Amino acid sequence: MITYIMIAFFVFLLAYSVAAAPAPASTSITLRVAHQARGILTFAFDPSQDASKSLQLLSTTNAGRKPGWIHPRGDMLYSVSRTNFPDNSSKSGGVFAWGETALSQVQSPLNLMSSTSSNGLGGVYCDISKDGRTLAAANIDGSTVSIYPLKSGVIGDPTFVFKYTIEKPGPGKDESQTQAYPHAASFDPSGKFLFVPDRGADMVYVYQVDGPESVKHIHNITVAAGTGPRHVTFSKVSISRTFMYLVGEIDNTVTVFALDGVDNSACKSGENGELRITHIQTASTLGPGANRTAFVNEDLASEVAVTNDGRFLYVSNRNTKSYDSDTLAVYAVHPSASASASSSSTNTTTGSGQQHLEFLALNPTHGKIPRHFSLSPDAENRFVAVGNQVSNDVTVLARNPKTGLVEGVVGNYTLGEFDETTELGPMAVVWA
């Protein structure tokens, strides 16, 4: 994929590598990593320890060939694998439901409740509806999204398998846009709408979901050619309005949409009106004043996340030409900048000129190729866990809840050798 000067990185990684410890501390937080070569790794993170000792490996779970994503929900964990499910005779990925182990057994592997085919090569993402009845899984290389019913931890037979195609390749370099590449399948906070970003088609497919037996394609969001839609995240601002943030992998942008007509009430089965989608702003992930990048794959944005209080947004940047640390782009969020937007508006500012996203900084991830990161589940999101795919490690960074800035390494664990192939390292990291 890329060429790196590896010696400098080995020195850095060795400085932070730690050994697994026998038991988690009472103050620890559980962290899980989908690692292509090793399976699902369960860690305890103890913020009271220094960076060299704060992450303790507790258990390893065999989760199919190249685990590609993990999603916690209640006392369950769901995952997808890239290929060879159930064995080497198949190219399809797998979808797995795992039962959490009791605290006294946290060092044991996860308990497999059920598993089934993902119905496509390249299992890369899974998500579950708000009511817990519907699971969606995306297969990037197979160009499919599969829908499954869930009941008591059991994944049922697929009720839908959506197959995507494109009329002609996009402008992305090499094979990045030669076919449909659905990179995620994410439910909005209401649980009634499913969004599928397709990197190859420069499109986001929108479905209305009324349970696993009723999934209806209702809309397409078309973005600029060469955007490369990858992932979305959401921030509720009222009962009827949500902001959606879309990261463009190829042109290194984050695009803001307002979703109106949703039902974000606490009840599990609210009635949604007509969904209205409004473009608010598109901003570079590489700094203030930067434009959309050329489609040359030098920089590739990967993940996007917003804080619980909705005040800050983060996007991970991957530079494929340098061995220097990659970065997290940090933005302040100003919801009022788009509070009056209408369904036909494409304005990005208010009368005062304030934008919805205000760029603050590029903070280092202290690793190479941060494919995925996640904010800790505490109210203030005090920590950021990063899975660095090529440096093949996990870093935990401290976050300042007041400024939004990421201020330094508080945990690091080396998972294996430096991996230029990107075939061995971490794919996803989530807090339990």
Any overview of this molecule?
It contains one helix and 29 strands. With 432 residues, the protein is mostly beta strands. The strands form seven sheets. Strands 8, 9, 10, 11 and 12 form a five-stranded antiparallel beta sheet that branches. A hairpin with a 4-residue loop joins strand 14 and strand 15 (203-209).
Provide key terms for this protein.
432 residues, mainly beta, Methylamine Dehydrogenase, Chain H, five-stranded antiparallel sheet, globular, disordered N terminus
Sequence-ordered SSE layout with sheet pairings:
Blueprint: H1 6-16, E1 29-35, E2 39-45, E3 55-61, E4 65-73, E5 76-83, E6 94-99, E7 111-117, E8 123-128, E9 134-139, E10 144-151, E11 154-155, E12 160-163, E13 186-187, E14 193-198, E15 203-209, E16 215-222, E17 229-236, E18 241-248, E19 253-260, E20 276-284, E21 299-306, E22 312-319, E23 327-333, E24 357-364, E25 370-375, E26 383-388, E27 393-399, E28 406-414, E29 426-431
Antiparallel strand pairs: 1-2, 1-29, 2-3, 4-5, 5-6, 6-7, 8-9, 9-10, 10-11, 10-12, 13-14, 14-15, 15-16, 17-18, 18-19, 19-20, 21-22, 22-23, 23-24, 25-26, 26-27, 27-28
Q: How helix-rich are the residues, as a percent range?
A: under 10%
Figure out the total of helices: 1
Low-pLDDT segments, ≥5 res: 1-21, 339-351
When the domains are counted, the total is 1
CATH homologous superfamily?
YVTN repeat-like/Quinoprotein amine dehydrogenase
Give me the CATH fold name.
Methylamine Dehydrogenase, Chain H
Radius of gyration: 20 Å
Estimated share of beta-strand residues: over 45%
Number of beta-strand segments: 29
User: How far do the termini sit from each other?
Assistant: 32 Å
Series of secondary-structure elements, N-terminal to C-terminal: HEEEEEEEEEEEEEEEEEEEEEEEEEEEEE
State the shape.
globular
- Provide mean pLDDT, rounded: 90
Query: Main β-sheet, in a few words?
Result: 5 strands, antiparallel
- CATH class wording: Mainly Beta
Can you tell me the CATH architecture? 7 Propeller
Indicate the structural class. mainly beta
